[in-house]
């Protein structure tokens, strides 16, 4: 199958812990996979195997929220990472650091910005738009629109421009009208 030394295997597990520590928040399997594959630090199958082993070793824990499973670094995982951090080659940590710096917002956008709609009747759709930060709603807005097309357009625009729109709404609400 794979010809890896035990040191290489340990290094790959440390990389997963490093990613979670560096990004400084819990991630879904697909988010971790995105970081690992786009930085080319290991293949998909190895990643899945290592995630499972890190769970068994209690270096990672998972929890479910909004029908998604998140991986979080445990205290034990953090201690192991700090102890063995020097075993990760510097060029690899730089590659991960740079990737996270350039992609953190897009990696997290789907967990922080939420939009959905529900059909009430043939000409009534309720659109829900939210921005969540540190598991708190910054904004939770419901709109009543007359078509599915409008509902979809609003949801798509919210996903693309939520931070700008949120800032505009706050600005309009706190502006002195005199």
UniProtKB/TrEMBL annotation:
Pfam families given in the database record: DUF4364 (PF14277)
Record Gene3D superfamilies: Winged helix-like DNA-binding domain superfamily/Winged helix DNA-binding domain
Name by which UniProt lists this protein: DUF4364 domain-containing protein
Organism: bioreactor metagenome
